[in-house]
From TrEMBL:
Name of the molecule in the record: Zinc finger MYM-type protein 1
InterPro entries: HATC_C_dom (IPR008906), IFN-induced_PKR_regulator (IPR052958)
Superkingdom assignment: Eukaryota
Domain HAT C-terminal dimerisation: 216-259
GO molecular function list: protein dimerization activity
Gene: ZMYM1_54
Length: 290
C-alpha cells in the first residue's frame, strides 16, 4: 500500500479536494449571490487546470514525503502483458513506455479532466444565468460600449418580461451614466448595487425596473443548500419520539429552528408578555360573551 504511486495520488488528491471543499463551503453560504458563486467556480476551475500541468511539482512533493518515511521514490514497473497481434490488424495498441507515464495519463490527467468537466456540466445553468446578468458586473460595465449594454439590457428584459417592464433598458442606461465615474475594477456586484441603492435611492420611483432587476439578482437561489438544511431540521425535530406531533406545531418549531439567528435575537420577555396579553384578551372576550 505504501508505495510511491500511493503517495503521489494522496498528494495531488489532497490539493484537488481542498479546492473543491472550499468551493463547496462557499456555495453553501446563506448570503452568497450568483456573482460570488460564479467567481468561486471560475477560480476553482482555473486552479484545477493549472494542476494539470504541475505533475512534476506534485511528484517532487511526493518524493519529499517518501524520503521522510523511507519509501522508494520510483514507480514500480510492472510486466506488460503481451497481446497477440492478428494478421488483419493495421496497428497495435499503443503501450506507454513506463509506469510513470501510465500513472500520469490514466490517473492524474483522467481525474483532473473528470473534475473539470463535472464543474462545467453541473453548473451550466448557473453560468447561463450569470451570462444574462452580465450587465450588473463592474468589469463588464467598465469595458462595454453603450450599444452593447443596451443590447444586453434588452435581452434581459425579454427573458424576464413577466416582471421587468419595457422601460428597463433606458432606466439602466441612465443609472449607468450616473455610476460610471466612480466605478472601479475592484468593485463587486454587491458593492455596485449598494452604491446605486444608497446614492440613488431617491430615484427609485423613476428607475423601479432597475431596482427590481437588482433584487431579482440577489434573490435567485444559487444552490439548494438552504432547502436541504430545512429538510434536515425537519428530520431532527420530528423524530420517532415526536411522531404524534401535529402539523401546526411542527411548522412553528421548524420555523424557529430554521430561522435560528432571527429567533435568538428576540427578547423572550417581550415575547412572553405579548403572548400573555393575547391570552388575557381572549379570556376577557370570553367573559363578556358569557
Amino acid at each position: 500500500m505504501l508505495n510511491f504511486e500511493f503517495l503521489l495520488l494522496c498528494e495531488f488528491m489532497h490539493s484537488v479536494l481542498n479546492d473543491i471543499n472550499y468551493a463547496s463551503k462557499t456555495l453553501q453560504k446563506c448570503d452568497i449571490n450568483l456573482g460570488e458563486a460564479s467567481k468561486v467556480l471560475a477560480e476553482t476551475k482555473a486552479k484545477l487546470q493549472i494542476y494539470r500541468n504541475d505533475f512534476e511539482l506534485f511528484k517532487c512533493k511526493a518524493r519529499e514525503t517518501a524520503r521522510k518515511y523511507g519509501i522508494d521514490t520510483h514507480f514500480q514497473e510492472k510486466r506488460q502483458r503481451k497481446v497477440k497481434k492478428h494478421f488483419d490488424e493495421l496497428a497495435a495498441v499503443y503501450r506507454f513506455p513506463n509506469q510513470e507515464k501510465i500513472f500520469k495519463i490514466e490517473i492524474f490527467n483522467n481525474v483532473l479532466d473528470t473534475v473539470i468537466s463535472q464543474l462545467d456540466t453541473r453548473f451550466i445553468g448557473m453560468s447561463a444565468v450569470c451570462h444574462i446578468f452580465d450587465f450588473l458586473t463592474p468589469t463588464f460595465l467598465l469595458h462595454v460600449d453603450e450599444a452593447t449594454l443596451l443590447q444586453k439590457c434588452n435581452e434581459f428584459q425579454r427573458k424576464y418580461s413577466d416582471i421587468i417592464g419595457p422601460s428597463f433598458s433606458l432606466q439602466f442606461i441612465n443609472i449607468y451614466h450616473l455610476v460610471l465615474p466612480q466605478l472601479t475594477q475592484a468593485w463587486t456586484v454587491h458593492q455596485l448595487c449598494k452604491e446605486i441603492m444608497s446614492k440613488y435611492g431617491v430615484l427609485e420611483c423613476d428607475v423601479t425596473e432597475v431596482f427590481t432587476a437588482m433584487l431579482l439578482f440577489f434573490t435567485i437561489p444559487v444552490t439548494s443548500a438552504a432547502a436541504e438544511r430545512s429538510f434536515s431540521k425537519l428530520k431532527i425535530i420530528k423524530n420517532y419520539l415526536r411522531n404524534n406531533m401535529g402539523q401546526t406545531r411542527l411548522r412553528h418549531i421548524s420555523q424557529i429552528a430554521i430561522e435560528n439567528k432571527t429567533a435568538s435575537s428576540l427578547d423572550l420577555n417581550e415575547v412572553i408578555d405579548t403572548f400573555a396579553k393575547t391570552k388575557a384578551r381572549k379570556k376577557i372576550v370570553n367573559i363578556i360573551v358569557i
